[in-house]
Amino acid sequence: MTPDTSGETVLEVRDLHTHFFLRRGVVKAVDGVSFSLRRGEVLGLVGESGCGKSLTALSLMRLLPKGGARTIKGEVRLGGRNILECTPAEMREIRGRRISMVLQDPQTSLNPVFTIGDQLREAIVRRRRASGVPVMEEAVAALRRVEIAAPEQRIGQYPHQMSGGMKQRVVGAIAISGEPGVLIADEPTTALDVTIQLQYLKLLKRLQAETGMAILFITHDFGVVGRMCDRVAVMYAGRIVECGPVQRIFEAPQHPYTRALIASVPKMTGSVGRLATIEGQPPSLMDLPVGCRFASRCAHVEQRCLDAYPGTVRVGEEHTADCWKVMPS
Amino acid sequence: MSANTRDAAPLLRVEGLRKHFALTKGILFAKTLGHIKAVDDVSFDIRAGETLGLVGESGCGKTTTSRMILNLEDPTEGRILLDGEPIHGLRGEALSAYRARVQAVFQDPWSSLNPRMKVGRTIAESLIVNASRNRGRGDRAQIDARVRELLLQVGLRPEQAQQYPHEFSGGQRQRVALAAALASRPKLIVLDEPVSALDVSIRAQMMNLLKDIQAQDDVAYLLVAHDLATVRHMADHTVVMYLGKIVEQAPTASLFDDVRHPYTKALFSAVLVAWPGQAAEEIELRGEVPSPLDPPSGCRFHTRCPYVMPHCSQREPALREVSPGHFVACHLFE
Lengths: 329, 334
What we know:
The complex is a heterodimer. Chain A is built from twelve helices and twelve strands. By secondary structure, chain A is α/β, with parallel strands linked by helices. In chain A, the strands form two sheets. In chain A, strands 6-7-8-3-9-10-12-11 form an eight-stranded mixed beta sheet, with helices on both faces. A four-stranded antiparallel beta sheet of chain A has the order 2-1-4-5. By secondary structure, chain B is α/β, with parallel strands linked by helices. Chain B has nine helices and twelve strands. Chain B has an eight-stranded mixed beta sheet, sandwiched between helices. In chain B, strands 2-1-4-5 form a four-stranded antiparallel beta sheet. The longest helix of chain B is centred in the middle third of the chain and has 18 residues, at 200-217. Chain B starts with 11 loop residues before the first strand and ends in a 6-residue tail after the last strand.
């Protein structure tokens, strides 16, 4: 699939920095992240735990965890406006209507003491633009849209009466009820069984085709990336180190980290010999090196990698990498 | 039980295993509402030094099966034999000897270690227990030497024995859990989703380590997993379960080359092939796994099967051999 480059940019993130200010020091969890998202496209954000992908998402929603996390620099342009400058009241209007989020665990996203119908209704009433249709009917329609069987009965049920896959559909229904232009999905299928995961991903694709929303899909699973995304951004130690069309990233990854990561995934075809591994650990986010952050684990490290950060280099159509090796000399 | 006519005597044999949990209502005058057939007539063999992969979705009975093999749960029917000896009903000495021979590594390395114990002590624990069983008290120097050896074997440094679990990363903790499991020189280790909580790059390290240890120590693994690619890399034989039953069972290479059962096919198409445009035949299953309290009649998969035939809901298919060593329970192959 070639990404549709004609689509207008709905979300643009420039040089985003979100740090944790702790007594022990500053944790630079998101440290200079830039990307853009076009209407109708799915951008995958992949990386290992602690690389800053979830905190990037929370920064976009302006829902940072309490306890010292602050976005100190950067811009998040949603339809031409920098939402980092919005007031809390304006943000409440933006969340749900313009940008929405689905989290990993549907169990904790839903309130256990209210029925599905109550929770959907709350979302619908708050985000309502035109009235006329009774709220209840709209809630049933929202459930039908996420392919829940017998929505009229389900609407009166509590979250514990539903399976994990069904709960995640309800969360999806709530998230898209305000018809947002951007949906952030943070590992939405990690807690689901594989056959249910496939159903959910296909549902997301269908909903996207209907609404034309842009999806930022956060995952650590390259299988999900291959199935869902048009473009993919690979994050390492607080920065995007490579970004490009899915096909290109899989077939010709340019950054040594992306290459190593893809090589370490067990495949469904080919030989079953030893898997490639990445030795060592990511650097501490409290004490980042001045040079390339992957240098200490990179097989191709040189002196210049340790001396300075390489900067983002264009390596192909819509394809960039942060590496000295790909820099034209 | 034709499914297991392999030559050498197996290390572990599972025969006609069933586990039914009674679902009751009330406390004093409890009324039985029904039985959840978590495991229903399961048989397989594990040979020494071999890995058996057990695959299926949540509720298919793979964890209950592994708990019975670990002797944490008694079967309702059927039996498990280790080296030809039934394992249930063992008491005292014989039971602790069994525990030394069959060990486990669980999914979550954050909860399987005692946070208040130095990891060296955690690893030494089974050595101390064993020593006190044999000779009263263990020789301290000997135990320390073995702990050092185990840490080196799993790729950690001997001096790390003095550290606490919170000082380790997730991958390192899983190595500690493995070292503790290896301490008593077991014949079989139950690996319950050993890599699914780990990061992608750490996963590969752990899988390589598990294979190396198997080659060195000739230990057998029962690998409980939902990720087919992991099973493909690790297992010699693979068993696929659905709602408490085995639906397909084969040498791993033959299963991955020639998937037969519609459920296994659906699992394969649900595996998100990492290469865009690589997936071949795709089966998207409708609906969810039915409740094991009231499993569908006949073939338990018939409610979701895309190839369902009229008699599927009436007769239960038996496991039959479709090619050497490859068994399928499906009416399509009769």
